[in-house]
Amino acid sequence: MKNYLTMTLFACGWLLAASCGPTTATYREVAVEAPFPMEPIREYVFPARDFPITDYGARTDSGALNTESIARAIQACHEAGGGRVVVPAGEWLTGPVHLRSNVNLYLSPGSVLRFTDRPEDYLPAVPTSWEGMECYNYSPLLYAYDCENIAVTGEGLLAPKMDTWRTWFGRPEPHLDALRKLYTMASTDVPVEQRQMAEGENHLRPHLLHFNRCRNVLLDGFKIDQSPFWTIHLYLCDGALVRNLDVRAHGHNNDGIDLEMSRNVLVEKCRFDQGDDGVVIKAGRNQDAWRLNSPTENIVVRDCQIVRAHTLLGIGSEISGGIRNVYMHDCQAADTVFRLIFAKTNHRRGGFIENIWVKGIQGGRMQRVLEVDTDVLYQWRDLVPTYKDSITRIDGIHVDSILCERTEAIYDLKGDSRLPMRNIEISNVRVGEVTKFVGNVVHAEQVEETNLQYNYKQK
């Protein structure tokens, strides 16, 4: 296997698009090498047509709200068969932005989309999800549902106002009651359209960017400063390129990018500075994910930098649809990362974790290089009951060529006695100092360590 993957681009012929787009579409195919079979990712070639939002009434005047102007530009671009909706330099105040098929939202250098923080601006509620459970909630700030060939590109900035959302970061009793209600509805198969959560003091914060059931997604070049909830969330998407992003969000639940029940995704050359996990692989929660039956698979992450986050690579704990074929390589993490690789699940989740590869990682100081924990429930342990026991199958985690300054432990594997994890390989790990223990193995089989180099200096 090559230590550094290459990406080749080559033009393909005219392909038929979905009925919501034009009759023909042009794509480039992005071939990504990985230690598993992976289909080329299609990159849509947008028509050379521009739709500046200023042509549809957008203004930078103080207090001018541009939600409708941006929506008109997007609609015109979509109806014309696609192109770029151009946000010029300047600061543009807006409510939710909803993309349509064949639309590239282009953020010009020096542009800022400044999203309001008035919850009423994000109504009516739209189909979305909350920590792996489907529901109707406040619109994500940047949203797409069942679209094909969509993009956000350019060098501009997505920056929400945060005053209201920060007051929602806490978890008072009305919010916990809303979580209990949603969990109960999801666990008892209440139809999603009846799960209306944008009500009262539920305070389920919206995502910054949430693309739901979309195909052929491109996110390239822009910056993000803060987010009400998960920052970038690709949910039930097929085919995505995420590259050259600079993402910073330091609030509660501010993961950098969450790939959930999605497939065929390349994330490269991104910088994440987060208040929660950095790159996160998820697959839905419990009954909802079992119903959807859509594994997260064929994910490659390379050449990314984690400035601050709880983990470099997080897997779970929403994992019920299953996760397989994930390859992260040639990434860096700073001292603020608690764990380089953290796979987490619990006895309610089911699903599987298989064929995970992590190689060529550099890190500073941390608690664990690799941790797998099958009993992670957070506040849900006592908040809601177990409707069904379902144990996660874990088979095949390969960690190779890791260099870090200091860690409490190199690996900490805590499996479930009912279905022990299998086939865990840790090789070519070099650590300046190990301060607690090298490895801990509970309910795990076929664990192999090769060429671990470290200085043991117990604190």
Short structural summary:
The chain has five helices and 33 strands. The chain is mainly beta and 459 residues long.
Account of the protein in words:
- With 459 residues, this protein is mainly β.
- It is 10% helix and 50% strand.
- It has helices spanning 67-79, 163-167, 173-187, 286-292, 380-383, and strands at residues 7-16, 24-32, 41-44, 50-52, 83-87, 90-94, 97-98, 103-107, 111-115, 126-130, 133-137, 142-145, 148-154, 157-160, 209-212, 215-220, 223-225, 232-235, 238-243, 246-249, 257-260, 263-268, 271-274, 279-282, 296-302, 305-308, 311-315, 323-333, 339-344, 352-373, 393-414, 421-442, 444-456.
- The strands form three sheets. It has a 28-stranded parallel beta sheet that branches. It has a three-stranded antiparallel beta sheet with strand order 1-2-3, with no helix packed on it.
- β1 and β2 form a beta hairpin.
